[in-house]
Amino acid sequence: MVSGSDQHGTPITVTAEQEGRPPKEVAEFYHKSFLESWQKLGISYDLFTKTETENHKQVTHDIFLTLLNKGYIRKEVMQSPYCEHCHRYLPDRYVEGKCPYCGTPGARGDQCDVCGKPLNSIELLEPHCRFCGHTPEIRDTEHFFLDLGAFEARLRAWVDRQAHWRPNVRAFTLNLLNSGLRSRPITRDIDWGISVPLPGFESKRIYVWFEAVIGYLSASIEWAQRQGQPEKWREWWQQKAKTYYFIAKDNIPFHTVIWPAMLMGYGDYNLPYDVPANEFLNLEGRKISKSRRWGVWIPDYLSRYEPDPLRYYLAANAPETSDSDFTWREFFRRNNDELVATYGNLVHRVLTFTYRNFDRQVPVPVDLEDVDKAMLDRARATLTVVDGLLAGCQFKAALREIMGLAQEANRYLDARAPWKRIKADRPAAATSLFVALQVINVLKLLFYPFLPFSSQRLQGYLGYDKPIGPGDWQWSELPVGQALREPAPLFQKLDETLAEEEVARLGR
Ligand SMILES: [Zn+2]
Ligand SMILES: [Zn+2]
User: Fold this and answer.
1) CA of 324 to the centre of ligand 1 (A)
2) For residue 487, is it within any domain?
3) For the chain, what is the domain count?
4) Domain range holding 427?
5) 105 alpha carbon to ligand 1 midpoint, in Å?
6) Reported pTM
7) Band of residue 410 on the pLDDT scale cut at 50, 70, 90
8) What is the CATH number of the domain that holds 227?
9) Rounded to an integer, what distance in angstroms lies between the CA atom of residue 263 and that of residue 492?
């Protein structure tokens, strides 16, 4: 699991110019802040690196030169917008105008956010410089182009075979291929980014859309070097491996067309196995926007709430196949109805009752009845089902299955009522608690990818000394007699009237 900060994107240079700071400083600031947020949210990587490293530059140069030598990259003269007022060529995102495909105003020179089509900045209608507002003039400038058309037939044959892709990702990609692939310039007249490894191009840089995707490969190489096994990355890129790319839909063309074409040209490296791109998540019915401050900032969220409820709501409400909406009211409702009332309550009533009445340890069951066996079978089966759903990147469906198991366990307990039976039939009460504890033990595992902090706490309450870790993803019985630790509720009920307060913070 590798990722990193794209440090050469135009958002970095735009911010740097606005704040009068060097791009490197801005890029570092955001890299550290991303890392800190991931850590506090329990999102872990084997390596989270950045594109401003010597290793990434070397890998990028190697891919550039290899594709050049094989004839997939060619020099051409292109027309580029030049702002006479600012005395410079304007990189894609520095030009805005009307989208030539759908007519939306405010489209950027690299891509239209509304119709998703990749653009060349000179195609924009009514273009203007983002900084001074002047209409740029078009000048000739020499650049390198990636010949995407050379890969069209191979890409189509490959995409045709990817029946397991999300339908929206596959349809979008086939649509791009059907409209025909053109050569795209991969260098620009800018001074922030990866240098062009050829004399005469000192004033130009390799453009970010070509170089950022190389980060997946360079990060794998850096990871292997850090392990002290510098060749180990080859297992993922040149041997049998399935690679998954987790992105949003605006990045589909770069991951299902451009990067696969680069990998085909570079030397038959493993192509993406799956690109489970998400659609967009809106916030209270509106598009999330940094400039309009219409967003929820992680450090701000964490100053008031725990990370797990946010992770839960985002996963349960993920825009897997269509756009979805984050609302604070629904965040509170799901926390209270699902995490607290269904899952948290199940765990808490079983753990406290067992802890108080059965010597703080996992009780000894007597003969299991059919209803007990059925409950355990359902728990085992859920592990298998969820395993398959996770491998297929169906995270919402996985969560529904897991919550379904928690609901089933609640029904089982209501029917067996060990708190009532304990006086008349202590062994029968012990048996139902034993069964419920096994279910809770597997729920802890199943929820772990979604709710890592509460699962680790539950691991402790169930008497384990070691935290949940690699190799634990399998059915294992909670041993009879294992000493339990004093439990506390896994989740806090939140006051739903606070939703209005949260909504009022937006846009300020
Ligand atoms: Zn458009
Ligand atoms: Zn200008």
Assistant:
1) 21
2) no
3) 2
4) 307-461
5) 9
6) 0.89
7) very high
8) 3.40.50.620
9) 48
